Amino acid sequence: xxxxxxxxxxxxxxxxxxxxxxxxxxxxxxxxxxxxxxxxxxxxxxxxxxxxxxxxxxxxxxxxxxxxxxxxxxxxxxxxxxxxxxxxxxxxxxxxxxxxxxxxxxxxxxxxxxxxxxxxxxxxxxx
Length: 127
Description:
By secondary structure, the protein is mainly β. Helices cover 3% and strands 54% of the residues. The chain has one helix at residues 86-89, and strands spanning 2-5, 8-12, 17-21, 23-24, 30-31, 38-44, 57-62, 64-69, 76-84, 95-104, 110-122.
């Protein structure tokens, strides 16, 4: 199970899930990453000794461009999808983590797409 609401994500430990995002420019236009652009998801555990930036990544995933046919049958839309496999969370402790999404352009410019937000791992019903 996965639930995403206002940038907060909750998922069941050991489940597979796909996370879709849409990037908008400052003027509200949908941004489709160009060739050479990389969009990554980072999940980290907050710690008392180090800042979030200094914490090691627990999960790192690259968003892939996926073409999806429009519901009206008129052309396609490009979606950004990151896949989290069951093995990525199977051995994690339940609880709250932080995640963020960054875009690095082919020219080397870096943009934070999703500021650090809550990523919760919940217990499942079976292993």
